[in-house]
């Protein structure tokens, strides 16, 4: 809870600072996520396509530099497919891990030319939902369901993003960003309980997301 309050305070201070500036831009954006999870026990994971949406403020520092804090809802995670043999029977399964975050990227922007910028900076995420959807077909018939797995994942996710953006004179902009996880997203205590006697203190998994966005700022 303290971590969540700290993130909210950071966001509030950042947006308050923005409102005190005489020249800044306010905008909104949305787009597609190509998300995945890397690390231990992720060999069978494939990417998951989803979305992000939210708002932003661009605070000018100089003619070429600006700071751009954002507040985004971002749906991330991964999916996997498998088939296992049990004697003469084969079990086929599909799983989709849905990790939904409220993310606060804080990007430093450098304008190469008018309208075209590159950006990089940290991102702080708060996990608000974690669901594992599954479908299994085998000797016991077909099964499907949706499990709440939020206890298996940490509330705070720290990442680093970099990319670029192009803004038209009418305010419409397009951007591409790659966000790579720095912190481990797994809650090791809960995973250890599920796996019983196995020592998985080194169990690490991290988010990664490619984001393609379109938006408008004024």
TrEMBL record:
Extent of the signal sequence: 1-20
Annotated keywords: Signal
Alphabetical list of Pfam families matching this protein: OMP_b-brl_2 (PF13568)
Annotated ranges, domain Outer membrane protein beta-barrel: 20-186
Source taxon at top rank: Bacteria
InterPro entries given in the database record: Beta-barrel_OMP_2
Protein name in UniProt: PorT family protein
């Amino acid at each position: 809870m303290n971590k969540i309050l700290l993130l909210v305070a950071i966001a509030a201070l950042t947006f308050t600072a923005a409102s005190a500036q005489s020249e800044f831009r306010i905008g909104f954006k949305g787009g597609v996520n190509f998300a995945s999870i890397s690390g231990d026990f992720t060999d069978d994971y494939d990417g998951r396509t989803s979305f992000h949406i939210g708002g932003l403020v661009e605070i000018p520092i100089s003619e070429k530099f600006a700071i751009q804090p954002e507040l985004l809802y971002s749906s991330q995670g991964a999916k996997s497919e498998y088939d296992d043999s049990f004697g003469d029977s084969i079990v086929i399964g599909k799983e989709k891990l849905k990790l939904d975050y409220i993310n606060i990227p804080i990007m430093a922007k450098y304008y190469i030319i008018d309208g075209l910028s590159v950006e990089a900076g940290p991102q702080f995420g708060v996990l608000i939902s974690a669901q594992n959807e599954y479908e299994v077909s085998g000797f016991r018939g077909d099964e499907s369901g949706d499990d709440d797995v939020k206890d298996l994942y940490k509330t705070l996710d720290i990442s680093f993003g970099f990319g670029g953006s192009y803004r038209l004179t009418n305010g419409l902009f397009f951007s591409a960003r790659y966000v790579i996880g720095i912190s481990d997203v797994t809650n090791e205590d809960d995973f250890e309980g599920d796996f019983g006697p196995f020592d998985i203190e080194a169990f690490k998994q991290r988010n990664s997301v490619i984001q393609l966005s379109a938006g408008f700022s004024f």
